[in-house]
Amino acid sequence: MIYLDNGATSLHKPQAVHRAVANALQRCANPGRGGHPASLEASRQVYACREEASKLFRCPAERIVMTTNCTHGLNIAINSLIPPDSRVVISGFEHNAVTRPLHARQVKIRVAGRRLFDWADTLESFEQALKSGADAAVFTHVSNVFGYILPVEQMAALCRHYGVPFILDAAQSAGVLPVNMEDLGAAYIAMPGHKGLLGPQGTGLLLCGRNPKPVLFGGTGSESFSQSMPAYLPDQLEAGTLNVPGIAGLAAGLHYIQDRGTENIFRQEHRAMARAAADLHALGFRPFTGEHQAATVSFVPEMDSEEAAQILAKQGVAVRAGLHCAPLAHESAGTLETGTVRISFGHDANPSQNAHFRRALTKIIPSGR
User: Fold this and answer.
1) How does pLDDT run along the chain (369 residues), one tens digit per residue?
2) DSSP states of 47-116 as a string?
């Protein structure tokens, strides 16, 4: 199978990730719940993951919280930073992991920037929204549907200028693009472990620039005499038993990324995306492409998007079709009624994937073209 659905999850992990998970399953017990070797080894594995993430994202290790996925982290961040009735600015390309928690908090949402691959529009609209009055901002780094890389450094600078705290959704950028907590000055940055960071599913990271509010309450292995959660990170947000095998695998994925370099991974993925976009053009399709684009490209076929994806699957190519849990992004791009077929490359992108994809595309070209 040619796997081109890395926007959903990375499937082909480095072998070091597999070994780390297996090793943790054999050697690790519950971290912080004992002084015996198996518990101590679990604690070492968890801390090693924090250290790897600290180096990559320039965030103090103790302010890096283990989550189950990016959605988990975003919910913690939104519930901590944004009280009900707040005025919140978001981009026009947000995932439901941002919009649903905001709607649940009954906040006043202003959408800023609806044009794909247009930094000028994004920044102008975003600044106007901040000027008009905002209590917080939440925005994605990269659109999960179209691969649009938003100008997050400039957006962060605008937030700092107007005194508006912000949350960054790094679901599609962590491990591929620079994400620097020190430089951005975010209140929170949430990311999954299982996508660009190449860890197992059920893992994620929340970088905390502020003191959050816990959403889970329970045992932490620390301050057991108290009926309140510990007042310090990361214990404050890590109630219950951590996914130690997953975290060990995530640490291996983070180490792999730092060895290869995010710039090299991005270059390889982007080259494959550009080739796929060119093939789509050559075969008469209209892909959504632009200057500021990561390794994801979408297009609208002349048949139902889901049907097109099924035909590609029968040709051995795994893609995703539909609304991709991001109806706001599709509304911005004018594809809300049709959805799109999305192709998203990963760290293992190579010319043979492109060649197989191009051959498979011929099966969804309408007869008569």
Assistant:
1) 999 999 999 999 999 999 999 999 999 999 989 899 999 999 999 999 999 999 999 999 999 999 999 999 999 999 999 999 999 999 999 999 999 999 999 999 999 999 999 999 999 999 999 999 999 999 999 999 999 999 999 999 999 999 999 999 999 999 999 999 999 999 999 999 999 999 999 999 999 999 999 989 998 888 788 888 888 899 999 899 999 999 999 999 999 999 999 999 999 999 999 999 999 999 999 999 999 999 999 999 999 999 999 999 999 999 999 999 999 999 999 999 999 999 999 999 999 999 999 999 999 987 545
2) HHHHHHHHHHHT--GGGEEEESSHHHHHHHHHHHH--TT-EEEEETT--HHHHHHHHHTT-EEEEE--ST
Rounded CA gap, 276 and 33, in Å? 50
Between CA 20 and CA 107 the distance in angstroms is 42
According to DSSP, residue 365 is labeled S
Domains of the chain: 2-11+261-364 (3.90.1150.10), 15-260 (3.40.640.10)
**Which H/E stretch holds residue 265?**
helix 262-282
Long-range own/partner contacts, residues 23-30 (CB < 8 A, 24 or more apart)? 23/248, 24/244, 24/245, 24/247, 24/248, 24/249, 25/245, 28/244, 28/245, 28/248, 30/221, 30/241, 30/244
- Residue 360 and residue 317 in contact, taking contact as beta carbons nearer than 8 Å: yes
Burial of 197 (0-12, 13-18, 19+ CB in 10 A): buried
Give the type of residue at 227: Q
Report in angstroms the alpha-carbon separations of 124 from 87, 91, 111, 154.
Answer: 18, 12, 12, 11
CA distance 8 to 14: 17
Per-residue DSSP letters for 27-52? H---TTS-SSHHHHHHHHHHHHHHHH
The C-alpha atoms of residue 336 and residue 342 are separated, in whole angstroms, by 14
